[in-house]
Amino acid sequence: MKWKKFAFEVVDSTNKVAVDYSIGSVIVAETQTNGRGRYGHTWVSDKGNLYLSAVLKTYGTQTPLLAFVIAVAVAETLSEFGVVVQLKWPNDVLLDGGKLAGILLEQSDEKLIVGIGINCVSCPVGLPYPAVHLNGKVSIVELQTLILQQLDKWICLFEKNGFLSIYHKWKEYAIGIGKNIVVRLPNETLTGIFRDLSESGALILELPDNTVKYVTAGVVFFENERNEYE
Ligand code: BTN
Question: Which residues form the domain of 82?
Answer without folding.
Answer: 4-173
